[in-house]
Amino acid sequence: MAELQEVQITEEKPLLPGQTPEAAKEAELAARILLDQGQTHSVETPYGSVTFTVYGTPKPKRPAILTYHDVGLNYKSCFQSLFQFGDMQEIIQNFVRVHVDAPGMEEGAPVFPLGYQYPSLDQLADMIPCILQYLNFSAIIGVGVGAGAYVLSRYALTHPDTVEGLVLINIDPNAKGWMDWAAHKLTGLTSSISEMILGHLFSQEELSGNSELIQKYRNIITHAPNLDNIELYWNSYNNRRDLNLERGGAVTLKCPVMLVVGDQAPHEDAVVECNSKLDPTQTSFLKMADSGGQPQLTQPGKLTEAFKYFLQGMGYMASSCMTRLSRSRTASLTSAASIDGNRSRSRTLSQSSESGTLPSGPPGHTMEVSC
Ligand code: BEZ
């Protein structure tokens, strides 16, 4: 039988009648600029329609970066600060990005009719194959925050072969226990939905500090025209099932995972516990100082650098792609890490607030990094 051979196909773009090569180039550039501004699509799924926005052009043999936002946010309010951060461009130019908006969270989304059955988080995860099929993508690197991190983890558990890596910020893999429910019900008696969601996103210290960022997000959530939809996503989050992760057990994430949490974040304990349930040879744990509840908003620089090392560990970012600064930092940290490497699989590495440096860890080390 003839062997299959990999062939390089170069796309031939015929000129339109009367079109000069210069005009064709300009049209192509315009199309590319349009792609870089993001193209929004919707697909029908068994659980209703879902909207997502695609940036960049697909790169052969590269997974797409697929993001999933937290409750109270949409892809822009959750990820724009990170993905438009200067140093991030060096990374994302190598990947197509698919930013999913949970149903009813997209800009201008109409309010669902009364009695609408909002999908559970498991069902939100089950919508992802429809998105990938529509785009004809076979593999992703997932980046999720809070409820979005849970959705992507659930997807990774059910479709392990399509997930090359996961960045999980503020993940809580456990279902609410009865104590959590009691506390939730009590808070609900005195607080509005928007205040409860703000308490999920930010630490009490941040909320009482009332910085410009907090004012901005308080304003966004309190005045959201789709607040009723947000409440439905919030309810699905609170009704999530336990992911039942078990280190060494049947239910575990198989891909490299970077867990991220702020050291003052409301979900710190949950992320620490999640770390204890994952395979230490596949997991990096990044605990960020001075980042509050939403490190992707407050510390995009540190997170970008950590993401770069995470991708490098997966073999995607050759050091030649890195800035000179990052390269020199990696060199010094790699030698430091190798001293530590013999001691234990699970490493704790610290760094100062200013440096923002992160160790380049080969997959196979759990790193707790206090930035
Ligand atoms: C991106 O380039 O992936 C991006 C741009 C704007 C908002 C969010 C993401």
TrEMBL record:
It comes from the Eukaryota. Residues 1-21, 334-371 are annotated as: Disordered. Keywords: Cytoplasm, Developmental protein, Differentiation, Neurogenesis, Wnt signaling pathway. It is found in: Cell projection, Growth cone; Cytoplasm. InterPro entries: AB_hydrolase_fold, NDRG. One of its GO terms (biological process) is nervous system development. One of its GO terms (cellular component) is cytoplasm. Contributes to the regulation of the Wnt signaling pathway. Down-regulates CTNNB1-mediated transcriptional activation of target genes, such as CCND1, and may thereby act as tumor suppressor. May be involved in dendritic cell and neuron differentiation. Belongs to the NDRG family. This is Protein NDRG2. The gene is NDRG2.
